[in-house]
Design goal:
Layout lengths: L12 E4 L8 E4 L4 E8 L2 E6 L10 H10 L3 E9 L1 E2 L2 E2 L1 H6 L5 H10 L3 E10 L2 E2 L5 H11 L7 E3 L2 E2 L2 H10 L7 E5 L10 E7 L2 E13 L2 E12 L5 E7 L4 H11 L18 H6 L18 E13 L2 E2 L2 E2 L4 E5 L21 H4 L5 E2 L1
């Protein structure tokens, strides 16, 4: 492979904001695997955000990219899988599997798509220093004949349209809007764009913790919600604290520590059968295939309020953010019923018009 921009490339990132800034190019924020695609003739490589190759996990995309992309190019985008009119991140996670036969079976029954939103190189020229507006125009031309598994993300210059997208597209599984300055060059690894994501709050039970990798301070708190059958389901973690706060929280939670997992709602966490039947901590990682054994059971007596962006099935899609303790709430009042359900929106309508509007 001989391209003007060679792998690995760290994708350009976005910093969070409370509202969309005016005067920019706006695109939906996709919820999938970020990917940089390199094509040089018959050679196709798909790199992840970390630079590791994703190529073997998406064989159906390799063929589609080879057929539908220009002969020599580098694109930035997102790998997604759709099911029932919305994005399905769980189906993506299933692709990270060591068995090639399993990957190829899933490629047939749940094919992925690549949604492109930037062009880093075309033919023999690097576009890294080219302004965003010109890169978008070149991307639209480059993908004018693409269809099926290779798609062009919608984009608009109209702030009012972007605000409508922010409200509507969540129902299709997207998690916000990205804003890009028109004169922005492509800056690998830099948080040079702006993202606005949905934020909601929920009251959760603290039912466990994981120590921090650096020592005997808090790494994360394990969160639970009660389902309709009265079972405490593991829904995610709350993390991202300054080191002093981690030490203080470890001391604060010490009185709740249990000597063993016996009697804890998640005491069967080590059983594969139990893992298949309920949401429990310590399950196998899709990335490593190993179980995380390093969690400490806590008596499920304390409630905290966390902020989250959206749900992935029955759990938080991303790490939740601590907001406050809720001594006024009882653990049994922390149920799924409190969670807001976004209005459904068909993913096909998101991709229906992929050119720039406004």
């Amino acid at each position: 492979m001989d391209l003007p921009v060679m792998p690995p490339v760290r994708p350009m990132l976005a910093k969070s904001a409370a509202a969309l800034p005016p005067g920019m190019l706006y695109e939906p924020k996709w919820d999938g695997f970020r990917a940089i695609v390199f094509r040089d003739g018959d050679e196709v490589e798909i790199g992840s955000r970390s630079g590791k190759p994703l190529t073997r996990y998406f064989p159906e995309l390799v063929g589609a990219l080879r057929e539908q992309l220009p002969g020599r190019c580098v694109l930035d985008g997102e790998i997604v899988i759709a099911a029932d009119g919305r994005l399905d991140f769980d189906a993506l996670l299933e692709r990270i599997h060591p068995a090639d036969s399993r990957v190829r079976h899933l490629a047939e029954v749940t094919p992925a798509s690549f949604v492109a939103f930037d062009l880093l190189a075309l033919d023999g020229a690097s576009l890294l220093d080219t302004p965003q507006r010109a890169r978008r125009e070149a991307l639209v031309r480059a993908l004018r004949d693409a269809d099926a598994l290779v798609r062009l993300t919608p984009a608009t210059d109209d702030l009012d349209v972007a605000r409508e997208w922010f409200e509507q597209f969540e129902g299709a599984g997207l998690d916000g809007v990205v804003a890009k300055p028109h004169d922005l060059p492509y800056q690998p690894g830099a948080r040079a764009m702006v993202k606005v994501k949905h934020e909601r709050t929920a009251d959760c039970v603290v039912a466990g913790l994981r120590p921090h990798k650096s020592g005997p301070v808090l790494g994360s708190m394990l969160l639970g919600l009660y389902d309709a059958g009265g079972r405490l389901q593991h829904v995610g973690v709350c993390a991202s604290f300054p080191m002093a706060r981690r030490r203080a929280l470890m001391e604060e939670l010490a009185p709740l520590r249990m000597e063993s997992v016996e009697g804890h709602p998640w005491q069967a966490w080590a059983s594969e059968e139990a893992q298949a039947a309920a949401r429990l901590p310590g399950g196998p990682s899709r990335w490593t295939g190993k179980k995380d054994l390093s969690w400490v059971p806590l008596r499920p007596e304390r409630v905290l309020e966390v902020a989250y962006d959206h749900m992935q099935g029955d759990r938080f899609r991303h790490t939740a953010q601590f907001r406050r303790w809720r001594p006024d709430r009882t653990p049994d009042s922390c149920t799924y019923a409190q969670l807001e359900e976004p209005v459904s929106y068909d993913l096909a309508q998101v991709l229906g018009g992929s050119g720039t509007t406004g």
